[in-house]
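Hi,

I'm pasting everything inline rather than attaching a file, because the server keeps stripping attachments. The sequence lines come first, and each chain or strand is labelled.
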Amino acid sequence: MTNDKLKNTQIASLGIMFFLMCGLRMWFAIFLYFIFGITLTIITKKRTYCANFCPLGALSDAFSFKENKKFLKLPKSIQYLTFIVFFLYIFFILYYNWGNIFLLWAELFKFILFIVFIALTLQVFYKNRTWCTTLCPMGKIYKGIIKYKI
Ligand code: SF4
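And the predicted assembly:
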């Protein structure tokens, strides 16, 4: 396991996310990060957010395994399905819990923990950052921004 390569920006971003979600219980913290990621990608035209600021990317790097070399090959259909389910689920959380700040926070927090669990479990068996390279819906949005020069 290697965790000596985390950048200061990754550590800071992870700490801020932890503080916002666990300290302040700010349910919309995840959306602030989405906006920050999109803005940074548009400005830099690179995956700057993924490489330097994404809390999940930082956790993936912190819990990365040098010895994993296997690629996870997934059909495009699974990747599209993940993309759709990811955003639909967030939409349902917002829709059904709107007006109740505690439930919004609790459901989004559970969802974040679930995604972290999936991402870290994947890289136990496959290459590091497999979630990032194959499934992450936000990563696909950032990729699209760069590809289509938005
Ligand atoms: S691909 Fe997704 S999880 Fe990975 S660093 Fe980018 S936004 Fe974060």
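The chain has a mean pLDDT of 94.

If the labels don't parse on your end, tell me and I'll reformat.
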